[in-house]
Amino acid sequence: MDFLTNALQKAFVDKSVISEKLNPKFIINDPEKNTYFLTLLQNDLTKCSSFFISVAFITQAGLDAIKTQMADLASRGISGRILTSTYLGFNNPDVFQSLMQIPNVEVRISKKQGFHSKGYLFDMKDYQTFIIGSSNLTMNALKINYEWNIKLNSYDNGELLSTIQNHLIEEWEQAEKLTETWLAGFRRSFHPEMNIRYTAKLLVADEKDESDYILPNKMQKLALDNLRLLREEKKATKGLVISATGTGKTYLAAFDVAQLKPHRVLFVVHREQILKKSMESFKKIIGGNDSDFGMLSGTEKKISAKYLFATIQTISKENYYKLFEKNAFDYILIDEVHKAGAASYKKIIDYFHPQFLLGMTATPERTDGFNIFELFDYNIAYEIRLQEALEEDFLCPFHYFAVTDYEKDGSVIHENSTISQLTNEQRVQFLINKLNYYGCSGNTPKGLVFCSRKEEAKQLAIQFNIHGIASSYLSGEDSIIVRENEIRRLENGEISYIFTVDVFNEGIDIPKVNQIVMLRSTESSIVFIQQLGRGLRKDSSKEFVTVIDFIGNYKNNYMIPIALSGDNSRNKNNVRRDTIDSTYIKGLSLVNFERVAKERIFRSIDQAKLDSFGEIKNEYFRLKNRLNATPFLEDFQRMGSVEPSVIIRREKTYYHFLKKLRENDSLLSSAEENALKFLSNEFISGVRPHELVIMLEIISKRKSAMAFEEITELLDRNNLKYNERILETIYKVLDSSFYVSTVRANYDNIQLFIINGTRLEMTHSFRDMMKHEYFFKLVVDTLRVGLNNAWEFDSTKALTLYKRYRRKDALRALNMVFNQNEQSIGGYTYSNNHFVIFVTLDKGEDFKAAQMVYEDEFLDPTRFKWFTKSPRTIDSPEVKLLKSSEDWNIHLFVKRRYSKKDTEIDFYYLGEMTPDIKTIRQIQKMTTQGIKRNVVEMEFNLKDTVEPNMYEFLTGE
């Protein structure tokens, strides 16, 4: 088969031609579908053996988007060329300086007048790929703008390819080399004709905005409306605002004071250096005389001010707070209110009685058991977390790089590395090289470096100074004055880095920070986001903030994708996919992992106990604190917490989990437990909504039966497709006859429904159970979770591409016969014109399920090699079927790997495929007992090319 001939036939002659590989692609950025030109570019770079990029315009952000791919290519000895220009003065000197930091790229500058090309050429060894269109190497073009690009493939002898290659070589030879000398001259003469500075209006009211009149942004308007409704409709005296760092909380507070017009206001912060800035922000919004505003701190005591800004350290002292009457302030605001569990805050909150108390925080979650939500009567006025803030463009975009930490003689930095290992000359030089390579906006770093130990931070600062990089060191032992002085020096450019241990996790505002460096393991998602947040405030001095995270052999590396994605599902496969597919990061931000760093994170995920009882217990009480009530499974789902299926897979029922915590409201009988166990295990995944819709209609409306005619009307109302075969399977599932005896035995042969003529009826025993209100509540909760999951599937199709399925759920969705347990199904089964294949790609060392190890594998994203069970021959029934399978639908389900440490039993659906008849052959393979057995090997062509991120996730390629 000639893949390229088929691909060109399909693209340019007849779209009905079957073609699985080398198909031309039309590429646009589509944020709703999470598809971007950037993803395709990164994947092509990863796979190529060389590359040639010819683009007129390059930005530092666009270059950052491919730096980890460039670094990985360099480690494999692969290099490439970039041809660019000085057309319209778009490419500034900083970009050329950044290009010179990439060792495996040669750069030349075209002298051609009006150079405006946009092309990307990749050598894929067996063929060439080129992309031509409208996208320059800028983040807007790669991820945001509406751009048109066409991707084509060619063999080496193709005329179009030869024309492009010859033209590029000619242009390359005429172009000028990028050198230090050229750059120095360009920098002296640079006068941009286009204004490409970071001039987009800041949607967040910046604390340094000098304008006289400021309007609330979108977030602030919603929060202000919610605060007003809290007071007017709920008569609330307290409210909590949860808002990511840098989204304008201070201005929000000032806007709320302006709309409420209290007689006197107290604003409490925990650091003196924030006071003056907060007071200036309030002046801009509220106006009035300067005499109305004053501070109560270690340096100023203007206690008569109408708007008083106080540090908690000062006002919590009895000789100060007792200077005021308890009702002296109508409105009190507490910044960083997650600290309110401390004794100093409790004194203030207990003493004063304002008409309204507002708390503001980016991280309300606590590890000391103190309940912030309870303190504010569970009144959450507004909440916006990192992902939403990025999507709304409230924050400065960040470029996160997970990079490989220093390694020598196979020894890698880890939690117990000695100070000498952390600060030796080789590691210091390694760190400097990486910092230079990944750079920062403008190439002049103003960086915060978070270290694991005080001595490490101190010694590294000394070493950086020795290497000519002006740096300082701060710890908790340094006074506020010392800290403020070092911050001033950093912002003024007197030093490039401040090395610290947790001093700047929160509550500090350094807008000019353009680089965050993490030289420590990630102990918690909260701290990770706090440290990341130090650079997210928008400022005209930077276009983005660079985050460089050095990944050693840390056991907590798995927390990194959790923190970045905000995915608290505790599902290991979700976390693995978040490491590979970072399209969850919205806007102009990006997340990239070097290959070795990614492998270390994967090892950490494999070893982590994400679904341990202790982890789920902690999430339970976190939710309970927030809700002021016992959370049910749907609460976990609604709040983006632990995935309910993770809890069910571990505990069998949510009731069993609650009982272990002694949080159950009532006791269930053994029959009720078995019924709940059946519903939880068989339906919570939601692979098909039909049964769930029917059961919820009967149960939640306290019916005892439904006529078949009523059921079809119900399915019609919910726009659910059905036919006689689907209805037959639905009824078999509901009356349990679909399930084999071994499955039914797991639930003590419980039966919930029976078919009586043309009616679906509850059994008498299930009807009696429904009289128990607590059982009723647990059942409805379970079914609602299942239905919520079901709406995530495509209800117009039996199966949804890339969704997870258990073997029996796949058979149910396809209306197949389930007449053997899942273990007996093994690798494949067939009935009802469907042939389903289940494959575990990486069997792992502890895989003992088969007598023979089958080497099923992807040949590429369009082809799959597969082996039948043993012993089988060319004349076996399934082989004959596959050789003449025109009337059969062949489905592929794949699991990444088998591991006893994982409870994951789901397979990803990769679509339908057709056998390549000429590849079918009978061979012999050795069993684990050393006996040769006959098997049949064949290759399949997939109908849908496996999308790159899924392919990498499943294969590691």
Automatic annotation (TrEMBL):
<keyword id="KW-0547">Nucleotide-binding</keyword>
<feature type="domain" description="Helicase ATP-binding">
    <location>
        <begin position="230"/>
        <end position="382"/>
    </location>
</feature>
<dbReference type="GO" id="GO:0004386">
    <property type="term" value="F:helicase activity"/>
</dbReference>
<dbReference type="Pfam" id="PF26350">
    <property type="entry name" value="DUF8090"/>
</dbReference>
<dbReference type="InterPro" id="IPR001650">
    <property type="entry name" value="Helicase_C-like"/>
</dbReference>
<dbReference type="GO" id="GO:0004630">
    <property type="term" value="F:phospholipase D activity"/>
</dbReference>
<keyword id="KW-0378">Hydrolase</keyword>
<dbReference type="Pfam" id="PF00271">
    <property type="entry name" value="Helicase_C"/>
</dbReference>
<dbReference type="Pfam" id="PF11907">
    <property type="entry name" value="DUF3427"/>
</dbReference>
<dbReference type="InterPro" id="IPR027417">
    <property type="entry name" value="P-loop_NTPase"/>
</dbReference>
<dbReference type="InterPro" id="IPR006935">
    <property type="entry name" value="Helicase/UvrB_N"/>
</dbReference>
<dbReference type="InterPro" id="IPR050742">
    <property type="entry name" value="Helicase_Restrict-Modif_Enz"/>
</dbReference>
<dbReference type="InterPro" id="IPR021835">
    <property type="entry name" value="DUF3427"/>
</dbReference>
<dbReference type="Pfam" id="PF13091">
    <property type="entry name" value="PLDc_2"/>
</dbReference>
<dbReference type="InterPro" id="IPR014001">
    <property type="entry name" value="Helicase_ATP-bd"/>
</dbReference>
<dbReference type="Pfam" id="PF04851">
    <property type="entry name" value="ResIII"/>
</dbReference>
<dbReference type="InterPro" id="IPR025202">
    <property type="entry name" value="PLD-like_dom"/>
</dbReference>
<keyword id="KW-0067">ATP-binding</keyword>
<protein>
    <submittedName>
        <fullName>DEAD/DEAH box helicase</fullName>
        <ecNumber>3.1.4.4</ecNumber>
        <ecNumber>3.6.4.-</ecNumber>
    </submittedName>
</protein>
<keyword id="KW-0347">Helicase</keyword>
<dbReference type="InterPro" id="IPR058403">
    <property type="entry name" value="DUF8090"/>
</dbReference>
<feature type="domain" description="Helicase C-terminal">
    <location>
        <begin position="423"/>
        <end position="583"/>
    </location>
</feature>
